[in-house]
Amino acid sequence: MDQPRRRNLHFQKLDDLVADARAVALHPHETTGNWNASQILLHVAALIGVANRGTDVRLPLPVRLVGKALRAFGIHRREIRAGIKAPPALMAENDANACVPVEEAVATLEREVAEAQAKPMSHPSPLFGKLSHDDWVALHCRHAELHFSFLQPTPDPVAGAPTGGG
Question: According to the lineage, what is the superkingdom (predicted)?
Fold first, then answer.
């Protein structure tokens, strides 16, 4: 089975992923995965919201123990591979987000990033447990790289060259 076409991205800071999201809103894009642009942007924003304000989602103990063991190896700072399924409790709103205008999704992401930059992200991860602010930033960058990689700029119909992207 062919793998979907993906962009190679590397974000250093939260502003990088906001800039890429803005480019998605400004220029024609197609998605090569299962979600549209709004679902992708709101999914990434939702995890930033977990870091900002916490969550009531509680993963089963065996999953949390595995997550904490993986954190000890720095897995939260490494590339996230496609195909890893998030727990259903963390994905509940994603189908509803399919109809959200992309500009609204970008605005939501911008608000979450602004909050994360205004005060340290200090709430625990449902999977990894307690993370420092810098660890959260790294995790959000890796998470956005994975999902944003499925957003492909479409060719400019006039010039035939790709538009947008980041």
Answer: Bacteria
